[in-house]
Amino acid sequence: xxxxxxxxxxxxxxxxSLVRAQCPQWADLxxxxxxxxxxxxxxxxxxxxxxxxxxxxxxxxxxxxxQRWLPRLAPLLPRAVPEPRHAGTPTPGFPLPWSVLxxxxxxxxxxxxxxxxxxxxxxxAAFVRELHRVDLMGASRTDDLSWYRAxxxxxxxxxxxxxxxxxxxxxxxxxxxxxxxxxxxAALALPEPAGGPVWLxxxxxxxxxxxxxxxxxxxIDFGGLSVGFPDAEHATVWDLPAAGRQxxxxxxxxxxATWTRARAWAVAVxxxxxxxxxxxxxxxxxxxxxxxxxxxxxxTTR
Length: 302
Fold this sequence. Notes:
Layout: H1 12-22, E1 31-36, E2 40-45, E3 49-54, H2 57-73, E4 84-88, E5 98-102, H3 117-133, H4 157-171, H5 177-188, E6 198-200, E7 209-212, E8 215-219, E9 226-228, H6 242-252, H7 256-277, H8 282-298
Antiparallel strand pairs: 1-2, 2-3, 3-5, 4-5, 6-9, 7-8
């Protein structure tokens, strides 16, 4: 499934050739598809490994971040995170960097895997607090660690405003885009966050979390790893059921301005996701719609 105009095609044969050429010790292990996101395509290699292949040259930069920083962050975090095992290099058959990580067992959080959403929300909040407390170890908001969601809202207003228009044209009256846009503009009127930069995962949506025995076990896909303001880190709380959202809010105990900016980031990602992926990635559009519906529902109760 092609999602981007500049996407580099890849299939199982391509991945097998990369492994054979650069990781001959794993060449005979079974290989099978293990899912795909907006940035990468994944293949399970044997029982213990995961191959991540970027969709575009821009997405490939995230793999280098994981290779450099995850080994340093992992010992400082309260949940498992991916372990880089090989930094793949471009080849004539696939002209981008790629990566092999250790496989982590677990399932995506959902109604069939999580029974206590309040406990899950509190566990996620604990992970976020610990990540944000980790020393920057000399890292700064530059180069690969600079990402739009780690900065202020204002520089994104032009493209977000365009996506509001696109979303209206796509969804029509089926979604209250006007209210969502008011939430965005309310956050724009606030001052920028105070305080110093912190480590950010960047995309703590359910598909980047793993549970075992109903509890948060691991946090994966650090492609959005960045340094900056923490507001957008909280945006994915609206992906959780109400009990999980409330527990996260209670545990984080953040001020109203931070939540207003976090909600604006959630709106921006949701609206742009619907407009951009409407014809190519219906599953992701559905995720974005759930997030926006939760935001609108919470606006009447909080």
